[in-house]
Design goal:
Elements: E1 5-11, H1 19-24, H2 29-38, E2 43-49, H3 59-63, E3 67-71, H4 81-92, E4 96-100, H5 107-113, E5 120-132, E6 146-156, E7 166-173, E8 178-187, E9 190-195, H6 208-221, H7 248-251
Parallel strand pairs: 1-2, 1-3, 3-4, 4-9
Antiparallel strand pairs: 5-6, 5-7, 7-8, 8-9
Length: 252
């Protein structure tokens, strides 16, 4: 791993063909996220999109990625299963994964969670209040007790995910719904963070608090340097240091 955290920002980059979305993100959601992440010292970014060869996630790209962020919505089924397998292998071996908004239904998130990850939703431009449940967690650094997203798509319970290892944020919506909106998981050597605010027709990724969460999440999800043992114990039992064969005669 290089000294810098190498982040690959993945996006379907299909919604931005719609005029309503293009008005908010003319260069794509991925370029906005890569832009504010790249403003940090010690962070290098690149982007990848669905329509690139191998969805932009070649073995070389993933081997040189410390944290992968993923934004997907309507085209999850178009992601090749071989690429999903490739990403899963990298996560298990230490690459961080940050799944944003509708990426809860992405193939990679569902595979790592082992559930269908369905939820309730309502697109009604509601105010969302994101409550910080763990103010001492690195992902919550720099935030107050809550922040508000002026216009958001409602995501509500029940959210069919495994119980998070750590629940950092929970959201309340103007219509009364609540949602586990910031969830941390560990899978083998990899760290995973799901963060729900980020509907494509609202300028949510321009909001300071949202950018702070994602910047913090990149730092938290970056590989820790741990690695699987190269090999296990292959020595015969009698060759192990200090081994003494049992005296069965004494047991009789």
């Amino acid at each position: 791993m290089s000294d810098a955290i190498r982040v690959t920002v993945w996006n379907e980059f299909r919604h931005e063909r719609d005029d309503d979305v293009k008005a908010v993100y003319p260069d794509g959601i991925h370029n906005v996220i890569a832009g504010f992440l790249g403003e940090q010292d010690g962070v290098e970014t690149r982007t990848a999109t669905l329509d690139e060869p191998e969805h932009g996630l070649t073995r070389e790209v993933l081997d040189n990625t410390d944290v992968l962020t993923w934004w997907g919505h309507l085209h999850h089924d178009e992601v090749d299963d071989e690429i999903v397998e490739r990403v899963q292998h990298r996560v298990i071996n230490g690459m961080g994964l940050i799944c944003l908004h509708s990426a809860h239904l992405s193939k990679i998130f569902r595979r790592l969670m082992g559930t269908d990850c369905m939820l309730r939703w309502r697109e009604a431009s509601e105010r969302e209040r994101v409550w910080v449940l763990e103010p001492g967690h690195p992902i919550a650094r720099g935030l107050g007790s809550y922040f508000e997203v002026p216009e958001s798509e409602m995501y509500g319970e029940r959210f069919d995910i495994p119980a998070p290892d750590e629940l950092i944020f929970t959201s309340w919506f103007q219509g009364g719904d609540v949602f586990r909106s910031g969830c941390c998981y560990r899978r083998s050597l990899g760290r995973i963070f799901y963060f729900s605010p980020g509907h494509e027709t609202f300028p949510i990724y321009f909001q300071d608090e949202v950018q702070t969460v994602i910047k913090n999440a990149v730092q938290w999800a970056a590989p820790t340097g741990a690695a699987w043992p190269i090999e296990g114990n292959t020595l015969p039992l009698e060759d192990l240091p200090g081994y003494e064969p049992p005296d069965f005669a004494q047991r009789m």
